[in-house]
Amino acid sequence: FLMAKIQHPEFGVQALIEDFNLVDASEAVTNPEYNPEKAKALNLIQAALWISADILDGDKTQLAGQLLGRLLYFEKPAIQAMLEVAKHWKAAPWLRPLAPCLTPPRRGLLRTLKGHSHWVNAVAITPDGKRAISGSRDNTIKVWDLTTGKELFTLKGHSNWVYAVAITPDGKRAISGSRDNTIKVWDLTTGKEEFDLKGHSSSVNAVALIADGKRAISGSDDKTLKVWDLTTGKELFTLKGHSYSVNAVAVTEDGKRAISGSDDKTLKVWDLTTRKEEFALEGHSNSVYAVAVTPDGKLAISGLWDNTLKVWDLTARQQLFTLKSHSYSVYAVAVTPDGKRAISGSWDKTLKVWDLTTGKEEFTLEGHSDSVNAVAVIADGKRAISGSWDNTIKVWDLTTGKEEFTFKGHSNSVNAVAVTPDGKRAISGSRDKTLKVWDLSMGKELFTLKSHSDWVNAVAVIGDGQRAVSGSLDKTLKVWDLSMGKELFTLKGHSDWVKTVAVTPDGKRAISGSSDKTLKVWDLTTGKELFTLEGHSDSVTVNAVAVTADGKRAISGSRDKTLKVWDLTTRKEEFTLKGHSDSVKAVAVTADGKRAISGSDDNTLKVWDLSNGNIIASFTGESPIASCAIAPDGVTIAAGARSGRVYFLRLEGMEELT
After folding, report:
1. Is the distance from CB of 615 to CB of 621 less than 8 angstroms?
2. Are 480 and 465 in contact (CB under 8 A)?
3. 263: which of 244, 313, 420, 501 fits an S-S bond (Cβ 3.0–4.6 Å)?
4. What span, in angstroms and rounded, lies between the C-alpha atoms of 372 and 266?
5. What is residue 370's three-state secondary structure?
6. Cβ-count burial 309-343 (b if 16+ within 10 Å, e if not)
7. How far apart are CA 436 and CA 410, in angstroms?
8. What tens digit of pLDDT does each residue of 510-532 get?
9. Which of 240, 241, 216, 242 is CA-nearest to residue 230?
10. DSSP for residue 22
11. Which helix (H) or strand (E) holds 27?
């Protein structure tokens, strides 16, 4: 039923999602056969469809994979019964998750909005909570329907990146600030530009509305703030005082004060009636990138380059406390309408929800695959939206604070994956400095290998699969015993990062490539360096290339979003594989040489038929795919993502093609 509904030309994913609303809780009273457990299961399925909607809109064959990846966490009988049916879907080839691997319902993420072709720098929400607007490095502003998740229209006119957006209290107009030094006012009813506000001599980084929406204030790299009349389009006055770029601005609800944050490490509080600086809040150790003010105008919250937020008492003119938990710079902050919580976005790819009464972190929202640059809260205080350098906008449930699931995986990008010859285990290497050994049939972690002092970039399996060798940014290679889970010895000799490693078929030698422009050959029995190969004029790297077992073909992946198949006998290109929408970062080939698997920055893993160049199946993860490997059976795949997840998948439905 689910597949039939989304594939029907008159219905689709949104219609299916709305069908679940027909199951109303009032049945508990009117229907004697009402089953609350089944109702909960239906709610979970609906929520999983919401999260997957952007993916299913583009590729409906991923329905079974998305449901399995998100719902395998749940042991509810009704859920498991549906998933059992999904496992046996055979209408087309598809990649079946062997273990739960995608964000489940009840973890905060509600849905993802896609449409921008570059970083999303700013977001704002209409007062009724029904629409959102986003500003991007693609020079456009997009207007979104938050009920359906659909893009309504695009506002074009800026000639450079859009850094800031705001919406008037009546929801009828939008204001945008850009790197082209201008502010534009837009009619959200017609989608037309009303007029330009010109006066800044450098990039406009921030905009905010004042009181009734008839005035706006902007902050710029020219070190000033300007106040504008939105009726006449004229500049009213300029606020001067910052000694470096103004990055952020917020206005109190009564319209009497503005608070600005700057690269000069200060917050300044301005009296908009007298047009003068009231006072400066000092104590930041670095640039202030974000600022928000509570509805009562009593507290200001600043987000900093030093990974922290600071909460300020505007009456006492002093700092109350510092919020620490982000691991990188804080680029965005918003406050809930009741003034009790702050939501911050960071370069560490997360959002955090804070209790402003206690100064404690409540929970973290994970799902973006790059820096979070913008955040806004919907009027009911229950939802937030965020914009990211991953080109997406995400909608979050702020009532979901309980961590119901623990994801098994690395804490940073997975750079390398290898599979043992018997196909029973996979080994992943990560930026978190560890390797993990996995049971490939179930996607379960067996143990972790710790010893490297920097990112693990490469991993290869030795001989019969009892040992593995890894290469790291710590300039070393390490040889591991996979049966004992222990390091055997370290190979030292490179003077720079080790980027790649390969092992000879007999398992006696390893060859490593390094940023020191050399290849080294190692004896894996003695742990000694045999010799060095010099002559490269640049770093030795194997970015994305695989060779068929017979040595007759090579498949390479490129930043141009394609893969190329090469005839190694004639040394000529056979054909190009097109289908990815971003850089291809990983390639593997089946033992029989009939299929290739590729991973890309577009978050997808694709399986290719090398006889005709067609895509057989695709799976969409939640962050760029950095590595992949395939077991000897030709259908079991392991892939590592930038988020730290390792995906274990099985190619199903191939019987239909034979």
Report:
1. no
2. no
3. 244
4. 22
5. coil
6. bbbbebeeeebeeebebbeebbbbbbbbeebebbb
7. 8
8. 888 888 888 788 999 999 998 88
9. 216
10. G
11. helix 27-30
| Residue 277 clears pLDDT 70, i.e. is over it | yes
Q: Dig out the tokens for 376 from the structure.
A: 């806004």
Tally: H helices and E strands in the chain: 6, 52
Report the run of H or E that residue 152 belongs to, with start and end: strand 150-156
Encoded tokens for 616: 């057989």
Bridge partner list, 620: 604
DSSP conformational letter for 200: -
CA distance 648 to 627: 12
pTM (predicted TM-score): 0.84
Burial of 509 (0-12, 13-18, 19+ CB in 10 A): middle
d(CA 426, CA 204): 49
> What is the rounded average pLDDT of the residues 294-309?
94
What separation, in Å, do the N-terminal and C-terminal C-alpha atoms of the chain show?
26
CA distance 367 to 333: 17
Taking all residues of the chain, what is their mean pLDDT, rounded to a whole number? 91
> 87 burial class (0-12, 13-18, 19+ CB within 10 angstroms)?
middle
β-strands 595-600, 604-609: how paired?
A: antiparallel
User: 342 in helix, strand or coil?
Assistant: strand
User: 632: how many CB neighbours lie within 10 A of its CB?
Assistant: 15
Size of the chain in residues:
658
Mean pLDDT highest for which of 147-151, 156-160, 544-548, 573-577?
156-160
The pair of three-digit structure tokens given for residue 586, joined into one six-digit string: 């990983």
Cβ contacts of 121 within 8 Å, gap of 6 or more: 135, 136, 137, 161, 162, 163, 164, 373, 374, 387
Instruction: Give 585-620 as a 3 state SS string.
Output: EEEEECCCCCEEEEEECCCEEEEEECCCCCEEEEEE
- For the residues of 377-415, what is the DSSP string, one character each? E-TTSSEEEEEETTSEEEEEETT--S------S-SS-EE
Q: Rounded to 5, what percent of the chain is helix, strand, coil?
A: 10, 50, 40
Measured between alpha carbons, how far is 29 from 51 in angstroms, rounded to an integer?
30
**232 - beta bridge partners?**
none
Nearest to 513 by CA among 528, 534, 489: 534
* Mean pLDDT on 153-159: 96
Tokens of 463: 């001989």
Give the residue from 449, 445, 447, 597 showing the smallest Cα distance to 100.
445
Q: How far is CA 338 from CA 317, 335, 342, 364, in A?
A: 22, 8, 10, 20
Q: Which residues of 276-296 are buried (b: 16+ CB within 10 A; e: fewer)?
A: eeeebbeebeebbbbbbbbee
